Amino acid sequence: MTSKTQQTTNEIKNFVLSSYFGDGLRITFGAVIPSLILSQFGLLQTGITVSLGALCASIADTPGPITHRRNAMLVTTLVVSVVSLLTGFANASVYFLGILILVFSFLFSMLYVYGNRIASIGTAALLVMTLGIGDIRSFSEILLYTLYIIGGGLWYSALSISLYKIMPYRLAQQSLGDCVIEVAHFMRIKAGFYKEGMDYDENYKKLLECQVLVNEKQNAVRDLLFKSREIVRESTQQGRFLVIVFVDVMDLFEQIMSTFYSYKTLHKQFDEIGILKQFEVVLLQLSDQLEEVGYALKADTKPQLSLRLPREIRDLKLEIEALERGDYGNEFKESGVQALNNIEVNVENIFNRIKKINGYFKDRKARKLTKSQTQSAYFISHEEYEFSLFRENLALKSEIFRHAIRVSVVMLIGFIIAQSYNFLHSNWILLTIMVIMKPAFSLTKERNYHRLIGTIIGAIVGMSILSWVEDGKALFAILLICMLGAYSFQRKNYVVSVLFMTPFILILYDFLGMGSRAIFIERVYDTIIGGSIAFVASHVFLPSWEHQKLKTVLVEMIEANLAYYHQVSTYYFGQQYDKIPYKIIRKEVYVRSANLASAFQRMFSEPKSKQLSIKEIHKFSVLNHLMSSYVATLALYIMEHKEEIPAIEWLKEIASNSEKLLNEAMMTLIKNENTAGVELKILPLKHIFKEDDDAILIAEQFIDLQKVAFDIYKISEKIKV
Questions:
Q1: Most C-beta atoms within 10 A of its C-beta, which of 149, 156, 256, 580?
Q2: Same domain, yes or no, for 550 and 505?
Q3: At what angle do helices 116-132 and 94-109 cross, to 10 degrees?
Q4: What is the pLDDT of residues 461-473, one digit of tens each?
């Protein structure tokens, strides 16, 4: 297990090696170089405009295949140049400017219908519009300003593409490393269930939150690996290595998911002999080992396999054998000892899987890796950019449409308020509204809080720096550090990003001779005003509450678990295992579990009056996690014992009843009433076992699944959304 000091060191190392820090370096370099070079010729203002163009292009340079990134950066450069031109002309009239703000805010906010990458193009366009408001120029100056924006966008695009050509696998390695580390974190949380005195509800909450992050990382890696032609072809050892490791990490995550039992029952039976503490220690060591693999991927080194772990696992096995022999007395239930046996076998499998992944590092160096059999086309989603999608969302029932109307009206109100008072700045008020307002109320609330806290603390830090540091070179070095921090944390931690961004802006204004104390006060004022307008509007004007769209998420979760259970159960009744359909269904379970956990988190951030059936939804989330964990256990068992499965046709009735219960749970959620017509119940197991019957373990899993399915059905009756 790692100490707190080691954990802190690991977190710092993890961040420095992450794609976040890499993005921060690239954006900082891309934005600073034009200003730095042109300032040498007395053209600092021109340099700042070129840097703005570079910054706009960087907004669309989010992780993904290079073709998508390249196209997004070039389209962004084109769009922001047009917006810059029109904003420059509209500055001649406050009325034209108001109309421009209203129209552009609506159109660019609607781009959320096409996903985050296209939405980022809209964000860049609104940024240029916002910063250009009130900047009255002549016709020739407007054209020059637009050309400088285009130049900056093209410069940054060329820089980003060039870095990719030099290191084509770097971003994929970093993302895969992040994914592995998040899976290790998931295992560390699961290890917490073996700790004596554990708060189960709190640990479940952490587990579900972590599952959201794991899913995000998996999707990011999936896009990078399977949408990049160089990697999909697996024509190099590095490409094969990344694909094979990712496939094994997905299987490993399933293995970790399947280690699920009634922890309360286990603690009641075994706390006195301390064997659960041994399990916790081993699982924490396994998570450390997996984390080491993640760091090795990001640093392009080779992980070291712990020599102590095999011994710890062997000791664990000997302890369980002692329990089976009755060395601790015979008061322990056979089912409890068998559960420990199953967990120990799973722990061994996890260790062997990690050992296998470690071996890939050696095989890559020896150039022994062969092409994987993964059919990547089945595991990636394809974005649709048809205009029909935009048109279909032009209705009040669309969350994005309501968001776009809300943003456009609030931006116009912010502009009118700023124009009414000389001491207010349209740019900062509108910029605050633009970055804070999100389609969901909870996200707007969170952004608002983070921006306000980050701005106030950052402004105090910035003023302190300007008061104490007078040397120009030292100030420039601090400015670069603040830029790097702001751009490195913008996707990871928004409050930290704003904390770095505010001193950066204050120092920049000081360099430009525009004062600092007045800027400090004005920035805080404008942030408070913009944030207040955005918060109130998201609460009262066409609000989007989570309970309004939660029914779909709940139904999709049951639907995914039902498909997963059906697919796995048929393997026990004669159907041959088919890897592709199984993995597609498994992926859907992970995605929808993450969607449910994410929706629950958002609802939890909303006002109490909007948190409908919050306790029931939490229990629903936990039960569905249980369901997928039990199904994963069944799936792994049959994969490891294909030739040893006994005839268990008598379990079909139990399996069918479980599916019936899940189907009825779905219908109950859809119609808000029981549609079965009869009272559904748990069917008893009628089969009589012999003492040495191999089917006992399988039957126990099917019975447990039926109980969970029944609980899901009963809790679905209580949910009102």
A1: 156
A2: no
A3: 170
A4: 888 888 888 787 8
pLDDT exceeds 90 at position 146: yes
Supply 237's token pair.
């050892």
Most confident of 48-52, 426-430, 537-541: 48-52
What DSSP character marks residue 580?
A: H
Closest CA to 186 of 223, 224, 217, 226: 217
Cα–Cα distance measured from residue 132 to residue 87, given in angstroms and rounded to the nearest whole number: 6
Question: How many Cα atoms sit within 13 Å of 526 on the Cβ side?
Answer: 26
Overall average pLDDT of the 508-531 stretch: 72
Q: Which of 526, 333, 500 is nearest to 418 (CA)?
A: 526
- How far apart are alpha carbons 257 and 608 in whole angstroms? 32
Position 363 pLDDT exceeds 90: no
Contact of 126 with 104, CB cutoff 8 Å: yes
Same domain, 327 and 178: yes
Residue 125 lies in a domain: yes
My answer on whether 150 and 182 are in the same domain is: no
Residue positions counted in the chain: 721
In-domain check, residue 391? no
Residue whose C-alpha is closest to residue 431's, from 132, 154, 163, 94? 132
- Domain that residue 451 falls in: 401-544
Distance CA 702, CA 634 (A): 8
Residue 387: Cβ within 10 Å count: 7
Token pair for residue 505?
Answer: 């802006």
How many domains are contained in the chain? 4
Q: What is the pTM of this model?
A: 0.81
User: Using an 8 Å Cβ cutoff, are 523 and 510 in contact?
Assistant: no
Q: What angle do CA 352, 177, 302 make, to 5 degrees?
A: 60
- Residue type for position 387: F
